[in-house]
Amino acid sequence: QVQLVESGGGLVQPGGSLRLSCAASGSIFSINAMGWYRQAPGKQRELVATITTGGSTNYADSVKGRFTISRDNAKNTVYLQMNSLKPEDTAVYYCNADLISDLVPVVADYWGQGTQVTVSS
């Protein structure tokens, strides 16, 4: 059974930094792309950043230049370094992995439970 577990969320002041981690574990055959999404109160879930196995990245315009996504393929872990945080970054951040499990030989999306990030003075 595949599990994605996020960590690193919390309360920070505007202009501060935070680093999120997401570790995938379980019956994993291979992981293709991984990414971060977020959902603020009353809003739709939106893409924050994605990264492929080869290291190609994609960012939402709202976080470009402030956030950095990276991954450790050997550890099946993806990170999100968030700098110059703004109040509008406040949301629940979800980890996503596009992978193939050992039990089902088909690519599918898996999601973590989410971690709260609050930016407030």
Question: Can I get a quick summary?
Answer:
With 121 residues, the protein is an all-beta fold. The chain has strands spanning 3-7, 10-12, 18-25, 28-39, 46-51, 57-59, 67-72, 77-82, 91-101, 107-111, 115-119.
> Number of helix segments?
0
Low-confidence region ranges: none
Morphology call: elongated
- The portion of residues forming beta strands comes to over 45%
Average per-residue pLDDT, rounded, comes to 95
Quickly give the structural class: mainly beta
Oligomer: single chain
Helix content: under 10%
Query: Could you state the order of secondary-structure elements as H and E?
Result: EEEEEEEEEEE
Number of strands: 11
The end-to-end distance, rounded to whole angstroms, is 40 Å
Radius of gyration: 14 Å
Biggest sheet descriptor: 7 strands, mixed
Topology (elements, then pairings):
Blueprint: E1 3-7, E2 10-12, E3 18-25, E4 28-39, E5 46-51, E6 57-59, E7 67-72, E8 77-82, E9 91-101, E10 107-111, E11 115-119
Please provide a written account of the structure.
It is elongated and about 45 Å long. The mean pLDDT is 95. Strand 9 and strand 10 form a beta hairpin. By secondary structure, it is mainly β. The relative contact order is 0.33. It has strands at residues 3-7, 10-12, 18-25, 28-39, 46-51, 57-59, 67-72, 77-82, 91-101, 107-111, 115-119.
What keywords describe this structure?
single chain, 121 residues, mainly beta, seven-stranded mixed beta sheet, four-stranded antiparallel beta sheet, 0% helix, elongated
